[in-house]
Amino acid sequence: MNNLNSVLIEGNLAREPELRYTPQGTPTCTLVLASNRAYRDPERQGERIEEVSFIETTTWGKLATVCHEHLHKGRGIRVVGRLKQERWEDSHGNARAKVLVIAEQVEFQPRRQESARQEEPAGTTAAR
Known about the structure:
Elements: E1 7-13, E2 18-21, E3 27-41, E4 47-60, H1 61-70, E5 76-89, E6 95-108, H2 113-119
């Protein structure tokens, strides 16, 4: 029986998507998602603390090519997927590991108002 391994994460792309192909020709796209969290720290008299987590996400197949074609740094996305731990040995013989998200679904968030206005052809105005 498989254990539950499911993640839902939302944030903005921290860099441009990177498309590569496996030796068999399968497309894979790496997305780095910046997910922000803000909270008040009671030990610091309620000071507002902001933290950012950078989450590496991998997409495969048709989803990889669609993400590479349509996503750009700064765009908001929501990812549904699973966690995967990769393990390897570096060039000095040290054991290394990282946890990443394998995306099963990627939802593109609407573009920000400023971006939408900049992309309009000259002479048009955004509906308000």
